[in-house]
Specification:
It is built from 12 helices and 16 strands. The protein is of the alpha/beta class. Helix 8 links the parallel strand 11 (268-270) and strand 12.
């Protein structure tokens, strides 16, 4: 649904005060003392910053425990411990993908996200439960946010026979992106895993977004294989590597050749700005012309109790992890959760220029850095020209939400 709206006294990216006229969901004019056509509502911005809608480029909508009883986490330290525990407990904990994704999506929208890329589990225990639940949710939430689905073999692709057939089914149902996971550490068959996921991309004409938690030399080895296939299959600009902890290695002889090839093949990198793992260096990556996006990853799930879906907070985490202190450096962290994420998701008409879709966030504050640090609850979220959330209250109610 699109709408028309006149915004008065807003400051795009903290610049001079201006008016912004929106028609049929797109920005059509900016300037002083604009007039609104008859019947078009007016919203007084009061000098607020006008920012592009936040881009949540990596989360797991089917996993959140929002709205459910508090989960006491006693899971073992290994990645497979967390993966197996979650798969075995989804139904016991009543983690209905439709309900839980609805709750997280509404919360993300209230914070200012207008686009989400969600990895959704595909496994032999649950089949299409997650994919179908998120597809139902995104149809019902389409007026407040756009959701893109990554079919994700979280429990492994080859180690659990039958998963590959389910991945084909998920793509046929309409998933937009093929997912993958740690070809050495999880499937222990890097050639087999990568051949399979790249074949899915070729079969359905889709992009790839692969989780790569593998550290150091193991991660660099897997990355080399990803680069090799990206080049050989003509998938330049169609691959995202999420987490990419190996790029946070202090060994420049290991990392620099990877960065050169990543830039050459326009491979995107997703980082959450992790506190406890090596992190890709966003300044070096952006300086090399590499697209870098971010996301909340899991939000209050069986892996951990943290996260809330606020991408301004995520910009702060990315900034802290990368020692962004100057105003221009904080702008880089903000770009990672907005324009860079839009590039990774290949969003059409994203931004603040005339002609762009009116997916916007209004927040009080003098500067962009202040908005990131203060993270006020006083936010107005606009999706295609319609105000969809005001001061933490959405036009939609999530299942089980009383008010």
């Amino acid at each position: 649904m699109t709408a028309s709206l006149l915004l008065r006294k807003v400051r795009p990216m903290g610049g001079p005060v201006t008016d912004v006229r929106i028609a049929d969901g797109r920005i059509v004019a900016t300037g002083a003392s604009l007039s609104a056509p008859a019947g078009v509502p007016t919203e007084d911005g009061g000098g607020c910053l006008m920012l592009p809608g936040l881009v949540e480029a990596h989360t797991h909508l089917d996993k959140s425990l929002l709205g459910l009883p508090w989960y006491v986490n006693e899971v073992g330290p290994k990645l497979l411990d967390k993966i197996d525990n979650e798969r075995l407990n989804k139904r016991r904990l009543n983690m209905d993908p439709y309900v839980q994704s609805f709750r997280q999506t509404v919360q993300s929208s209230q914070f200012g996200s207008t686009h989400i890329r969600s990895h959704v589990d595909v496994d032999t225990d649950h089949g299409m439960w997650g994919i179908e639940g998120i597809m139902k949710m995104r149809e019902e939430c389409r007026d407040i946010i756009d959701v893109e689905i990554v079919a994700f073999p979280q429990s492994g692709l080859l180690r659990r026979p039958g998963t590959l057939a389910l991945m084909h089914e998920a793509m046929k149902l309409g998933s937009e992106v093929v997912g993958g996971l740690d070809p050495c550490a999880i499937d222990r068959d890097p050639k087999g895993h990568l051949d399979a996921v790249f074949d899915l991309c070729q079969t359905y004409g889709k992009a790839l977004d692969i989780h790569l938690h593998e550290p150091g030399e193991m991660g660099a080895f897997s990355f080399d294989l990803i680069i090799e296939r990206t080049r050989a299959l003509g998938m330049k600009g169609k691959v995202t590597v999420s987490h990419a902890f190996c790029l946070g290695s202090p060994d420049r002889d290991l990392v620099d050749p990877l960065i050169d090839q990543i830039a050459e093949l326009d491979i995107a990198i997703m980082t959450t700005g992790p506190a406890a793992r090596p992190a890709p260096p966003i300044k070096r990556l952006l300086a090399a012309g590499i697209r870098v996006c971010s996301g909340s990853d899991g939000i209050r799930d069986t892996w951990g109790p943290y996260g809330n879906g606020d991408m301004l907070e995520r910009a702060m985490f990315v900034g802290l992890r990368n020692n962004c202190r100057r105003a221009d450096e904080m702008r880089l962290a903000f770009d990672v959760v907005t324009t860079e994420g839009a590039k990774v998701m290949e969003l059409d008409g994203y931004g603040l220029a005339v002609g762009c879709q009116a997916d916007l966030l209004l927040v009080p504050g003098e500067t962009l850095a202040e908005a990131i640090v203060s993270r006020t609850a006083q936010r107005r979220v606009i999706k295609r020209g319609r105000i969809v959330a005001r001061d933490g209250v959405s036009i939609l109610k999530a299942p089980g939400q009383l008010s």
